[in-house]
Structure formats: C-alpha cells, structure tokens
Design a protein that fits this description.
With about 500 residues, the protein is an alpha/beta fold. The chain is built from 16 helices and 11 strands. It has a 6-stranded antiparallel β-sheet. Strands 2-1-3-4-5 form a 5-stranded parallel β-sheet, sandwiched between helices. Helix 5 packs antiparallel against helix 7 and helix 13 crosses helix 15. The chain is elongated, with a radius of gyration of 36 Å.
C-alpha cells in the first residue's frame, strides 16, 4: 500500500545500491521482472536511473521513496568508504515508516537488504538476506553449483529467505490487483507461482549472483611497497618536489615506520621529509633516492633513474627504488607510482665454505673494478678531475650506493663473520695481522660513510659543500689504501684456498 492515503494497484520496489554493485542490481531487476510475469504485471521495480528529469536528485529520490512499498538494499561491502548514498536512502525510508506508524499505527513499508558477507551497518535492525557464496562453492563451477543449490532448496517456500521474499511480493501484488477467478483456480495459480519461483526464477537469480561474485576480487595484496605520488600543477621553473605533494602507500611495511602502522596511509611530501630525517640512518639517502627517481621521471629529456637504493629503517634490508608508471593530466597534475623492490639475495651453491670462497672472489673482483682500477668512473683520481660540483655530488652518492650493494651481498653470503675469514685467509696467516687489516678497513669505511652523509643534504654551490668535499677526498684516500690491502692480499689467499678445494675433490685416476 502506498502510504499517501490512497490504495495503489502496483507494488513498487525501490532498489538502492552502490555504483560498484551495478551487476547485482541487474540480477535482481531480472528476478523481479520474472515474478512480475506471474501476477498481473503490477510489480514495478526501479532505481535512481529510472527517475526522470525536472527535479533535483534528492527531491526525485524522496518522491520515489514515498511511493514505494519495499526498499531493497543491495550491498557487497566494496563501495567507497567516504560516501554512501545508500545510507541516506535507508534513513529517509525509515523516517517514512515511523511517520506511518505515528499517523496510522502501522506501516506496510518494509526494508530488505541482500548482502554478500555482512549486512551494511545502516540495516542492522531490518531483514537481511545473505547472498554470499563460499569459495569452495565458487570453485565447483556454475553448473555444479546450481545443481547443489537446487538439491539443498527446502520443500517449503517459506524455509528459504530468498524464495520466501519473492513469493511474498507476488502475494502482495495479487492482493493489490486480485484475479477475477474462483478460489480453486486462484489456489492453483498460487501453487504454480511457487513452482516457477523455486524451479525457474530462484535458480536463475542464483546463477546471476554466481556470475557477479565469481568476477569479484576476493583478496588483493600488494607484496612490495608502493607509494603513489600526486603532484599538483607545477609552477614555472619549480625546483624539486613540492611539500604539498600527496603520498599514499600500500603494501609491505618496508618503510612502515615512515607512515605508521596502517595498511594504507596518506601524508604529504613535507610531512614525510620531517619524519624521514629522524630515522633515515646511517647514510641519509632515502629522501635523496626518492627525489632523484621521481625527478628523473617527470623531467622531460632526462632518463629515468631506476638505480637508486635505500636501506629500510624497519628491517635493515636494501630496496631498489623504481618508477613504474606516471599519469599527466591536462591541467598539469601528475600521478607517479614508485615501487620499493627488495634486492635479491645470493643463492648458495653446494658446500657452504666453497660458496663463501667463490662469493668473496666475485665480490672482490667487482670491488676492484669499481673502486681501485684507474678507468672506473668511481676511481678517486678520475673523480678529482671533475669540475661540475653537481656531478661530483652525484658520483659521491653513487659510490656510497655501490659500496652498500657490495656489502649487502657480502652479508647475504655470510662473509662478515669470523668463519668466513678463517675460510678465506691463508691457513698459515698471522691472525693478528688479519685483524689489524680488517679493523683499518672498517674504520676507514665508517669515515667514508660519515663524510658522504655530510655531503648529501648540501647545495653543491655552497661554501659548506666545499669544506665537506675536502673531508671526503681525504677520507676516501685512506679508505682506498685500506681496501686495496684487503682486496689484493685476501683475494689471492681465497683463490689459493679455492684451488685446494678443487684439488681435494678430484677423484684418483
């Protein structure tokens, strides 16, 4: 009954849904159309798209709700958290029910929610019917699933909430516009409606629901850390990332302490920098690496820099910073996606000690090629010949990055422990001398890191940069001398020990 004081022949069902659930809407509209065929075509189901022009959307929906008998809520739980039009419609319809009861002592209106996992909070006090499917049911395939559905359908139509609801709507429609037939014929028609609902309309609806749910994403996980940067329209000659750029992160907690404990969080570049400066230790390159990668992506004509590496302050692991995608809008805004990909660990090959020797030799060769050979781009003599201070700064930071990468591989190979040294050095070596060499290297290494860390935040054109650069050259010379001893002396002993192992494993002729 329409609660406007006049009996209407039609049964009017207003369907409320989130835009993300449009496929569920179509499934139920099809079902309502099916039961409409069983009565005098006086069941009208509609939704907001059916509302004509001329009034504002709120006024139009209010008018439609006032004329409705049943408000059907379709809810999967994936609608946007920030806005829920469904909640407004439920509240308005509940107010209509309260008004009816106040004026006439009762209301023929009702609210029914169909949900996947759990009913929406706004319908907690009304009838809720679950339409969800278990994953093992979805894995059966549609034909097997429908066979299972029909085998489990109760004999009595009232014992299944969906068939009961559909039948009650037809009963209401028959009451509104009764057929001019005798009681026996009416009873037979009622029995036929029950049969068609159970054998035709219900399985068709369940099949359509199956199609809807099977195409939904049950779980979405981002295994690595993803940061989305939303850059506002840039002004002319803007330098660097603006402090109001929005950062949103998803995925692993590789840099979780920069964002907090939320699975998904947003902040600004300015706030991110303030937090990062507190924990970006020991060499302060997280901000530099992110900014370098992003700027290389958005600057026209500049190759994308995917060589940046950061050490997580959370787990101490190394991550490569990679730009994977960017979107530019007509108004100049940009969205850039930055991933933090963990650097792969070394794979063990057979005997642990043999793997240590082989790994040390490979890393020692890489180390020599990068830092000790004159033609290397990181060689101290070549770097000193550079005149562009910006290029010098880039070389210093790149040197530290390559050094960190080699050391990370060394840690993965367990080359930083006492067992490794006993495996690498000559069997007759003076262990006190070995200890002195290693201590000298470690002390020089720490000074190099300290001086590089002092250079990172400085403007290459500043006087402070010149002073820090002088300190860098002196600490780098000490480091190169200490590393040359370790590299040459102990690589030779590792080669000899590896040679002995190959001899030891030879079978006798």
């Amino acid at each position: 009954m329409s609660d406007q004081g006049v009996m209407q022949e039609q049964v009017r069902i207003f369907c409320s849904y989130a835009r993300e659930d449009a496929d569920f809407l179509q499934a139920f509209l099809k079902g309502f159309s099916g039961i409409n065929e069983l009565v005098n075509h006086n069941i009208i189901s509609f939704y907001d798209k059916d509302i004509g022009f001329g009034l504002g959307i709120n006024d139009s929906i209010e008018k439609a709700l006032e004329q409705s008998d049943i408000l059907v809520i379709l809810y999967t739980g994936i609608s946007k958290k920030s806005y829920s039009y469904t909640g407004w419609e439920v509240g308005y319809f509940q107010a209509l029910i309260s008004r009816d009861i106040k004026e006439r002592g009762e209301s023929s209106r009702r609210i029914v929610s169909f949900f996947v996992d759990r009913p929406p909070a706004v319908t907690a006090a009304v009838l809720g019917i679950s339409i969800g499917l278990e994953r093992d049911e979805l894995s059966l395939g549609k034909v097997a699933y429908l066979t299972k559905v029909m085998s489990e359908l109760p004999e009595r139509i009232d014992d299944n909430p969906i068939t009961k609801f559909l039948f009650e709507v037809t009963q209401l429609a028959e009451k509104r516009a009764p057929s001019s037939v005798d009681p026996n014929t009416s009873m037979l028609r009622g029995a036929e409606r029950i049969r068609k609902i159970k054998e035709e309309i219900y399985p068709a609806l369940k099949g359509d629901i199956y199609d809807c749910i099977s195409s939904r994403i049950a779980i979405r996980e981002v295994e690595q850390l993803l940061i989305k940067f939303e850059l506002p329209r840039s002004e002319a000659q803007a330098v660097g990332l603006p402090d109001d750029a929005l950062l949103t992160h998803k995925g692993s907690s590789a840099l979780g302490s920069l964002f907090g404990s939320d699975d998904e969080a947003a902040t600004t570049w300015g706030a991110f920098k303030q937090q990062a400066r507190k924990i970006d230790q020991p060499f302060g390159t997280i901000l530099f690496a992110i900014e370098r990668a992003l700027e290389s992506a958005v600057e026209v004509g500049r190759p994308v820099d995917n060589e940046q590496v950061v050490r997580s302050p959370t787990d101490g692991k190394l991550y490569r910073v990679i730009v994977t995608e960017q979107t530019e809008y007509y108004d100049g805004r940009r969205a850039v996606y930055l991933w933090f990909i963990p650097i792969l660990s070394w794979r063990w090959l057979g005997n642990e000690e043999t793997s240590m020797l082989l790994g040390f030799i490979v890393l020692a060769a890489k180390y020599r090629f990068l830092f000790l050979e004159e033609k290397s781009e990181y060689a101290i003599e070549r770097a000193k010949k550079l005149s562009d201070m910006n290029e010098i700064k880039e070389t210093i930071i790149s040197t530290l990055r390559e050094l960190v990468l080699i050391e990370e591989e060394a840690r993965a190979l367990k080359l930083d422990g006492a067992k490794a040294m006993l495996t690498i050095v000559d069997r007759n070596a003076d262990m006190e001398e070995v200890s002195r060499h290693m201590a000298a290297y470690e002390a020089a290494r720490q000074e190099v890191e300290k001086s590089a860390n002092a250079i990172v935040p400085l403007n290459p054109a500043s006087e402070a940069f010149g002073k820090a650069l002088a300190d860098w050259w002196s600490t780098l010379e000490v480091f190169v001398d200490a590393s040359r001893v370790v590299n040459s002396k102990y690589t030779v002993s590792a080669l000899e020990n590896l040679k002995l192992r190959f001899v030891d494993t030879q079978k006798p002729a």
